[in-house]
């Protein structure tokens, strides 16, 4: 991936991994646009990173996704990198009364949004790179977040296929595979024990600079290459 001289859209760019990626891309002399659902979080991100361009957009909505890409095509027609980072994680079980409603929300943001945005941006913008942020849980599901784990498995599979489909258009497709990191994903405090986001971002940038299209961190490197002999015991340990 070309790491400088880009104009980059990052979904879910106001906090967590998205904000850390935005900061790192800005240091690499890129222009970065961050979108998210919460205006207050975007304002805080812009206060921290004054060069950041922000846009309120709820990517769970198909109409909002179309409006976002139309705005980009009009106001930022040189956007050439899409980072599908937005995601939500619900700790839930099918026994919960609101299980299906919450599952639909996860599917809309974690699955429908990256699919639809990839289509729209490929058709309306001069894309050169799509970056999909998946998860180590794409390989070993955590049963307390069953739908989240499944959505990341879907996105991992789609990324592999899209990499081949987009090759004819000279568009590179990159996958970032984080482990659990110290963010508010799933709820405040749930991941306070996890490694900081900064280490993950520095590690993946080193891999991208080396020309890799799949970037891992810590144990996700082993998971991404493992067979059942590793994944089975890993599932047992996690759950």
Summarize the structure in short.
This protein is of the alpha/beta class and 239 residues long. It has eight helices and seven strands. Helix 4 links the parallel strand 4 and strand 5 (129-133).
Describe this structure in words.
By secondary structure, the chain is an alpha/beta fold. It contains eight helices and seven strands, in the order E-H-E-H-E-H-E-H-E-H-E-H-E-H-H. It has helices spanning 16-27, 39-48, 62-75, 99-124, 146-165, 197-209, 220-225, 228-238, and strands at 7-11, 31-36, 53-56, 81-84, 129-133, 172-177, 214-216. Strands 3-2-1-4-5-6-7 form a seven-stranded parallel sheet, with helices on both faces. Helix 2 (39-48) links the parallel strand 2 and strand 3. Helix 1 packs across helix 6 (197-209), helix 3 packs parallel to helix 4 (99-124) and helix 4 runs parallel beside helix 5 (146-165). The longest helix has 26 residues, at 99-124. It is globular, with a radius of gyration of 17 Å. The termini are far apart.
Which ranges are low-confidence, i.e. pLDDT below 50, for 5 or more consecutive residues?
A: none
Would you report the number of β strands?
7
* Number of helical stretches of at least 4 residues: 8
Terminal residue distance? 36 Å
Average pLDDT reading: 95
**SSE series:** EHEHEHEHEHEHEHH
Shape label? globular
Provide the gyration radius in Å. 17 Å
Q: What structural category do the secondary elements indicate?
A: alpha/beta
Main beta sheet: strand number and arrangement?
A: 7 strands, parallel
Please estimate the helix content: 40-55%
Question: What topology, given as strand order, has the largest sheet?
Answer: 3-2-1-4-5-6-7
How much of the sequence lies in strands comes to 5-15%
């Amino acid at each position: 991936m070309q790491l400088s001289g880009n104009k980059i859209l990052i979904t879910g760019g106001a906090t967590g991994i998205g904000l850390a990626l935005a900061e790192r891309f800005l240091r690499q002399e890129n222009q970065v646009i961050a979108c998210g659902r919460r205006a207050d979080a975007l304002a805080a991100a812009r206060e921290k990173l004054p060069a950041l361009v922000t846009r309120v957009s709820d990517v769970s909505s198909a109409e909002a996704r179309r409006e976002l890409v139309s705005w980009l095509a009009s106001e930022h027609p040189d956007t050439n990198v899409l980072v599908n980072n937005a995601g939500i994680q619900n700790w839930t079980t099918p026994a919960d009364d609101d299980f299906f409603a919450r599952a639909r929300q996860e599917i809309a943001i974690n699955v429908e949004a990256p699919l639809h945005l990839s289509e729209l941006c490929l058709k309306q913008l001069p894309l050169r790179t799509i970056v999909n942020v998946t998860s180590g849980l794409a390989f070993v599901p955590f049963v307390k977040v069953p739908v989240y784990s499944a959505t990341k498995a879907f996105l991992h599979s789609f990324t592999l296929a899209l990499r081949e489909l987009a090759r004819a258009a000279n568009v590179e497709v990159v996958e970032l595979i984080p482990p659990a990191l110290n963010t508010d994903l799933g709820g405040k405090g749930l991941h306070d024990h996890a490694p900081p986001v900064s280490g993950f971002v520095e590690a993946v940038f080193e891999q991208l600079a080396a020309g890799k299209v799949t970037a891992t961190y810590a144990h996700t490197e082993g998971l991404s290459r493992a067979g059942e002999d590793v994944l089975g015991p890993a599932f047992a340990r996690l759950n």
